[in-house]
Design goal:
Length: 201
């Protein structure tokens, strides 16, 4: 009678559960890391905006202090405020010009002004031809030197496949004639001051 004895150690069983837990933990860490980066960037942008607002407030306070020290004429101070008011109104006027050129069933999404007289606009269109129509009308504005399409992306809308539609999200770059923009600013400022004078009178 033969008796066999296996003195070799048994191979350890693979622990798939440990691998699974490690994989899930790693994926969750990566998701948290990406989310943290996105949140940090959002907070940083908000912080930069608030810092810019604070700097503007400090500059206005400095101007007001200088005016109080020099005992300025109230009329001159009113004129300065009216000029600032006029510049703000003219910016709104330019933005209104861009929005008014949008075709029907389209909407304004974003507006960003860059140094040097360049504006970037993002708008949503129900039809692709609305993108080219808007570009055509932008180039017709008197203060626009050049307008071009940067990108066009398609987004699906609706849950029902039969009723599902598409939106075309287009981004445009617009170069403006800053001399003409300043002329428009001057005209709007003058009208704003005149209008205020008429109300006071």
């Amino acid at each position: 009678m033969k008796i066999s004895i296996n003195l070799l150690p048994k191979k350890p069983k693979k622990n798939y559960m440990t691998v699974l837990i490690f994989g899930v933990g790693y994926a969750a860490s990566m998701i948290l890391l990406i989310a943290g980066i996105i949140i940090y960037q959002s907070i940083q942008r908000e912080y930069d905006f608030l810092e810019s607002q604070i700097d503007t407030t400090i500059q206005l306070q400095a101007i007001a202090s200088e005016n109080q020290t020099a005992a300025p004429n109230i009329t001159q101070l009113d004129t300065y405020v009216d000029q600032l008011d006029g510049q703000r109104v003219s910016s709104i006027h330019l933005l209104d010009q861009f929005i008014s050129q949008l075709p029907q069933r389209s909407s304004f999404v974003r507006y960003e002004y860059n140094e040097g007289g360049t504006v970037e606009i993002t708008a949503s269109f129900e039809e692709n031809r609305g993108v080219s129509s808007y570009l055509y009308h932008l180039n017709k504005l008197p203060f626009v030197v050049d307008a071009m399409i940067n990108s066009v992306n398609t987004e699906s809308q609706g849950n029902d496949e039969e009723q599902q539609g598409h939106q075309f999200i287009a981004t445009f770059s617009i170069t403006m004639d800053m001399d003409m923009v300043k002329d428009i600013q001057g005209e709007v400022t003058a009208k704003a001051i005149d209008g205020k004078g008429e109300k006071i009178g």
